[in-house]
């Protein structure tokens, strides 16, 4: 290959695909970035076999060709190149010559023949959704996914599509987040339900812009394919049966105490309480007790070796006085993700799950199981 | 104790003394911060027995007293308090009650009796220097100090004062940095030479402002005492004989090749070359070859497993063509610290040390030993 491009092109391309570069040493070629010059486009590609990311940019292609360069070194190097025009050319023996100003460097690379090819998509479902919406949905839902690899289904995020409605769900069995959205583009066929690795979803959020541009989604038998502008991401799907989340969420009619509270106020209190970590407990979390009566929410937490905290927040209470104990981290995660000035906290009693909803709309639901303390 | 202060007071005081809080578990009381209310002042103090930092603020003292609070928890907590007035009060049994808005928390603390008292200064030398100047001197010199604790003298920074001239020196025996400065205040007596831990110096730079305010320095037998406004820092001195640095620096008259070069240009080139790290070498550094002739500086570096680089920079050369090989990190450190648009690189030959000076003045000298490659 032989091309002319700019420093900014290289920095942009590398930064997009970098997250898919493998950190493991098991297959050395996967620590590289594939560069491919073809038809006036330079394509960057990296894969760790879980996900693959592709980014194509318009450049001046003098001669088509490919090479694999070491990912870490190449990304550090391009950041340090001077601004302006860069000339890239393959040398004999799998080197890449980089020329800039009066200078040049040569990077030892590898043949692209060793680089794994991408799986082909046998598209079952094709559709599109606004990038800014999908990005927000991911940020609100992914927080509830589990990091425990021994139960793969819970490390994933469920994508449930029926006609033009999309539902995204994640749960680690202690809390559950659910967000609804609307398909913008056509959807063929009209129904699909897949579990996507949450790590993949976070990468999809990263390549998605804050604009209304469409994110194209294609779901195959074992893979899912996302395209946002000049960037594509392919990921495996997680096999297994996702739990029936509808049954877990109590109906609104069962709610006995509906508390309207300012999100920021409750978050700040929860953050202070969360510092009272019980070191004797392996997973390092603090318990927070919420008690509501007469339009006052009392919050208490206590760790014998550190200290205790007691706070009061003014709220609007519809229904009965009650109390409940949560893991403060689960509450904190929800309050950070909810993106609304006020929320409803709906409680049934000390032994039933609490539900957080936004006051403006019901597109987002976050459910937390209580902790039994007696 | 019982006081009223603001959240900002607490955040400021904690942030100043936090660096002296011990991370080691050997003496649990040292992981605490001492709070002392006395004569309308709240004093924060922390020490790891190497250095101690004190910070005093004007607050409303209702009742004098002291307490030691856990450093890490207290500093995380005060950052999360709401803005505004905070009321602090000792409880029975060494607790600290913190009241704010309608809320309160209690932090379990310790008696201040267990907290080590500060060593008394038997002042031999007292003087003062501008904070902004001293801060800059530290930043330019400390980079050359060694991290190798087996030779304590080289982990220190030499402070040499004769009449109104102060000289600061650090060296790890591979490179040496020297900076001259002027005392602003009176100096009694007129001569002193002490080795201060470089870690202490970096903390002194941190507590020094960017203004012309005086930094008071008092040197005792084993300690040094710095005062910048309401903050004091006490540190031990390093015992031992500092090498005679004057003999190491070649006289300007011996220089055979004087190269004038733009600092930024040479730094950027050196940074690119420094990425060619030789993994086989334990200390992970790259060798960079500088070759000068006809107002061109050629820079080359090569790591067989990664690649190679060749760059050219326009320079002004007075004297003979020559070449030299450096450890790129030592050159990079100097070029980052020098704070001048242009430098002189003075060379005697491939086997003699290279000297970097600023073009505007000669207050700063940075010497690098060459690497023999044959």
UniProtKB/TrEMBL annotation, chains A, B:
It comes from Formimonas warabiya. Residues 246-372 form the DNA polymerase III beta sliding clamp C-terminal domain. The keyword Chaperone does not apply. GO terms for cellular component: cytoplasm; DNA polymerase III complex. Belongs to the beta sliding clamp family. Forms a ring-shaped head-to-tail homodimer around DNA. Pfam families: DNA_pol3_beta, DNA_pol3_beta_2, DNA_pol3_beta_3. GO terms for biological process: DNA strand elongation involved in DNA replication. GO terms for molecular function: 3'-5' exonuclease activity; DNA binding; DNA-directed DNA polymerase activity. Residues 129-243 form the DNA polymerase III beta sliding clamp central domain. Confers DNA tethering and processivity to DNA polymerases and other proteins. Acts as a clamp, forming a ring around DNA (a reaction catalyzed by the clamp-loading complex) which diffuses in an ATP-independent manner freely and bidirectionally along dsDNA. Initially characterized for its ability to contact the catalytic subunit of DNA polymerase III (Pol III), a complex, multichain enzyme responsible for most of the replicative synthesis in bacteria; Pol III exhibits 3'-5' exonuclease proofreading activity. PANTHER family: BETA SLIDING CLAMP, DNA POLYMERASE III SUBUNIT BETA. Residues 1-119 form the DNA polymerase III beta sliding clamp N-terminal domain. The keyword DNA-binding applies. This is Beta sliding clamp.
């Amino acid at each position: 290959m032989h091309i002319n491009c700019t420093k900014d092109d290289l920095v942009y391309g590398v930064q997009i695909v970098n997250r898919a570069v493998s950190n493991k040493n098991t297959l050395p070629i996967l620590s590289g970035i594939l560069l491919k010059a073809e038809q006036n486009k330079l394509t960057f590609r990296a894969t760790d076999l879980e996900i693959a990311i592709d980014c194509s940019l318009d450049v001046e292609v003098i001669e088509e060709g490919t090479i694999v360069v070491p990912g870490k070194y190449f990304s550090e190097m391009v950041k340090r190149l001077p601004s302006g025009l860069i000339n890239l050319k393959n040398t004999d023996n799998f080197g890449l010559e980089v020329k800039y100003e009066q200078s040049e460097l040569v990077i030892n690379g590898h043949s692209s023949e060793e680089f794994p090819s991408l799986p082909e998509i046998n598209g079952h479902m094709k559709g599109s959704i606004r990038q800014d919406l999908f990005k927000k949905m991911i940020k609100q839902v992914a927080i509830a996914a589990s990091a425990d690899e021994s139960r793969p289904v819970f490390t994933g995020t469920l994508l449930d599509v029926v006609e033009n409605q999309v539902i995204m769900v994640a749960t680690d069995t202690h809390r559950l987040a659910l967000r609804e959205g609307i398909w913008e583009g056509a959807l063929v066929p009209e129904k699909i339900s897949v579990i996507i690795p949450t790590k993949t979803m976070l990468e999809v959020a990263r390549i998605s812009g804050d604009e209304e541009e469409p994110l194209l989604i294609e779901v195959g038998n074992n893979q899912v394919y996302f395209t946002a502008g000049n960037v594509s991401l392919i990921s495996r799907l997680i096999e297994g049966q996702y739990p029936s989340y509808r049954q877990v969420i109590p109906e609104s009619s069962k709610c006995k105490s509906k508390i309207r509270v300012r999100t920021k106020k409750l978050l700040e209190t929860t953050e202070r309480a969360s510092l009272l970590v019980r070191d004797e407990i392996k997973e390092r979390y603090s318990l927070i007790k919420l008690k509501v009566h007469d339009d006052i929410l009392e919050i208490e937490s206590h760790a014998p070796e550190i200290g205790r905290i007691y706070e009061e927040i003014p709220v609007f209470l519809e229904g009965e006085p009650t109390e409940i104990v949560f893991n403060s981290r689960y509450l904190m995660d929800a309050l950070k993700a909810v993106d609304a000035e006020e929320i409803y906290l709906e409680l049934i009693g000390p032994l039933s799950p609490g539900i957080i909803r936004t006051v403006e709309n019901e597109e987002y639901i976050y459910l937390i199981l209580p902790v039994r303390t007696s």
